[in-house]
Amino acid sequence: MTDNAKLSIGDKSLEYPVLKGTVGPEVVDIRKFYGQSGRFTYDPGFTSTASCESKITYIDGDQGVLLHRGYPIEQLSEESSFMEVAYLLLHGELPNPDQHDDFVRTITRHTMVHEQLAMFYRGFRRDAHPMAIMCGVVGALSAFYHDSTDIDDPAQRMIASHRLIAKMPTIAAMAYKYAVGQPFLHPDNSLSYTGNFLRMTFGVPAEPYEVNPVVEKALDRIFILHADHEQNASTSTVRLAGSSGANPFACIAAGIACLWGPAHGGANEAALNMLREIGRPERIPEYIARAKDKNDPFRLMGFGHRVYKNYDPRATVMQKTVREVLGALGVDDPVFEVALRLEELALSDDYFAEKKLFPNVDFYSGIILSAIGFPTTMFTVLFALARTVGWVAQWNEMIEDPEQKIGRPRQLYTGATARDYIPLDKR
Ligand code: SDX
């Protein structure tokens, strides 16, 4: 146990316990700080703040380590499946064969959505961004599943978790079908979770759809790479929404909204658009110069991370998967060469080295998704589909945490002090 943290402020000497985890930085427990000092701590963006205790995911940003319930992402993405990782994140252990089969059977049986939910899509323009549709339709699930919104009932929490994991592929595929003007396909539960999603997305009623095993494996691996990531912005959003007792469907819809931002999950769409805009390796220096220019808001999308100050281990796996998928599909996408060259030039530039900016999970993913046939507007939808597993695991952990209470940060107020109202005719 580390000695207490000592802080002298004004005429007070205060001490706070230091809490130690199983691995990673210790934390200073400052819950009594305001009561004892009359002051708040100040940490915009929560760069030095632990919002909760968790057992789900551990990241060592300096070493580029990512563990899910202790298992390295490199091993899970190579050996496991998205359904197995979903079980691991939710329950804390890898399933035995019976547990695995039961879980897959349960998820499979929840893949259909209420037929009335299909009516929601009709309200959107055909060119609506699919993430706008996801925010609306997932939030609307609250209106259909009143039998699984009592968050104090563990059984209802697990049903809602299963429903969310199972229905996200169906809802996402429907968003794509609506955009391209093709009919919705119902789930085919003889297929795998990822194969079912591929068929609902790219299949048509007019002919049978054969799932390409290379694509199925690559997409399943991409889902694993996006499943969870500690207390990132969208997971923190889900936890904060859940801390008020909001139902899980509303909380996940809040997470989807947050993930959409280009600084977060929206970066995969922005990164491919950027690589396409660059177009040729000869144009890379111009963009690197812009990224370094303080007066230019442009940033290299898919580069940098709040936690990783080393290579994002997911990006390593993603780059390897690009080679596999492009090779298997016989796709020669010049954008991949641009991405590889951009990475090489950026990582040899002092600006990126000093600021420890490396490719993150979003830098290469779009190249694979594009090769599979997804439009860029669907990239963040796929991120949300996969991250739903992490969101519901973190949401359950928060609800079960005896120390959790409604999240309610304070502020440093720099606005006007009290003043009297002036009637309009006196102003
Ligand atoms: C995800 O949190 C997670 O875990 C997220 C995620 C997950 O799985 O949930 O990993 C998924 O969101 C990955 C990140 C995707 N976003 C992008 O690729 C967008 C581009 N990257 C950034 O905008 C930025 O790097 C962030 C948002 C990811 C991190 O920002 P921070 O931690 O707040 O760092 P910062 O903005 O303060 O940047 C530090 C410095 C700044 O320079 P100075 O002001 O110190 O001089 O680095 C510079 C920034 O200008 N910088 C970049 C840059 N990213 C940071 N400069 C050029 N290009 C970039 N991409």
Keyword list:
single chain, 427 residues, mainly alpha, two-stranded antiparallel sheet, globular, binds s-citryldethia Coenzyme A
Describe the protein's architecture and organization.
The chain has 427 residues and is mainly alpha-helical. It is built from 18 helices and seven strands. The protein has helices spanning 33-37, 73-79, 82-91, 97-108, 117-122, 130-140, 154-180, 193-202, 213-225, 233-243, 248-259, 267-278, 284-292, 313-329, 334-347, 350-354, 361-372, 379-400; strands spanning 5-9, 12-16, 18-19, 27-28, 57-60, 65-68, 71-72. The strands form three sheets. It has a three-stranded antiparallel sheet with strand order 5-6-7. A two-stranded antiparallel ribbon has the order 1-2. Strand 3 and strand 4 form a beta hairpin. Helix 12 crosses helix 15 (334-347). The longest helix has 27 residues, at 154-180. It is globular, with a radius of gyration of 23 Å. It starts with a strand and ends in a 27-residue tail after the last helix. The mean pLDDT is 95. Bound molecules: s-citryldethia Coenzyme A.
* Widest beta sheet: strand line-up: 5-6-7
**Which oligomerization state do the chains in this entry correspond to?**
single chain
Main sheet attributes: strand count, strand direction, barrel closure: 3 strands, antiparallel
- Give Rg in angstroms: 23 Å
Beta-strand percentage? 5-15%
Bound molecules: s-citryldethia Coenzyme A
Give the termini separation: 62 Å
* Element-by-element helix/strand order: EEEEHEEEHHHHHHHHHHHHHHHHH
Shape: globular
Name the structural class.
Answer: mainly alpha
Spans where pLDDT lies below 50 across 5 or more residues: none
Helix content: 40-55%
Mean pLDDT equals: 95
Quick one: how many beta strands? 7
Number of H- or I-type helical stretches: 18
